Amino acid sequence: MIKYVLKRLGAALITLILILSVVFVLVRQMPIEGYFDNFDKLDESVIRARLTQMGLTDPLPVQLKNFFLDLLRGDLGESARYSVGASISDIIAAKAPLSIYLGLMSMGLSLALGIPLGAAMARSKAKFWDKFGTVFIVFVNAVPAAVYYILLQSYGSRALGISMLFDRTDPATWILPVFSMSLGNIAYYAMWLRRYMVDEMNSDYVKLARAKGVTSRTITMRHVFRNAFVPMIQYIPSAVLYTVMGSIYIESLYSIPGMGGLLVDAIKRQDNPLVQALVMIFSCIGVVSLLLGDLLMVVIDPRISFAKKEGAR
What we know:
One of its GO terms (biological process) is transmembrane transport. Keywords: Cell membrane, Membrane, Transmembrane, Transmembrane helix, Transport. It comes from Candidatus Avichristensenella intestinipullorum. Its main location: membrane. Helix 11 (about 260-270) packs antiparallel against helix 12. The longest helix has about 35 residues, at about 90-125. About 70% of the residues lie in helices and about 0% in strands. It is flat, with a radius of gyration of 24 Å. It starts with a helix and ends in a 13-residue tail after the last helix. The chain has about 325 residues and is mostly helical.
């Protein structure tokens, strides 16, 4: 198992280095205006001096090496337009806690609603909960997320009698953003749990338990649900990515002062260093979540064996 974990850690590290390198190179292809405030009012000599100071006139391999050295020291550079001269690390540190808190709340809500919905669908095939869940899953996956986010904001705020915009001091305004971020994961959990539970219900051990007179509820909760939930662990990375992607749009939609809204603002203002830092952070979240999904699967599922089979080389 240790060998497998080390191998996965090594693969994740290589993937992360490649992603960071690609993002770095792509950002370097963007116009240099994104590194200056009031670019049109600056003299060419000032621009050249500033580019030299930032190391942007060095060969690309040298820039990449310096970038990784700065990254190891925790230096993400300075904002060029969003907050001129401010440390990007400080900007992100001020925004990240709110995004993390909202993300954790949305994932908790996803588990609290998606898992029971999937279980109810599996237990009542072709009945109300199964039909309701199927319609919900199809709607969430077929309709563009931006459409039902806007509908939820518009009609939800009217129904609840709350502001359409986020207010940190008013807990009621947290409801719609958190629920919006959780919709994709609710549908995802419900869909896959239903599938796994239906597969387990057709297994031989379930038929044997029924023949012995074990009640349907006991079979479902003690055996089917437990065995069906284990493969769900591998979808934790997808849940994290759904939350991250949702937060980018939703934080901007509700004017939430978090990292998602910060990325939108940085792109609008063409702040190249800040865009680079945020894209890399979101990419790292994706890679780390995939790694955690693999490792959790190994720890929780006892059926996974790392011993070589007889005759294997």
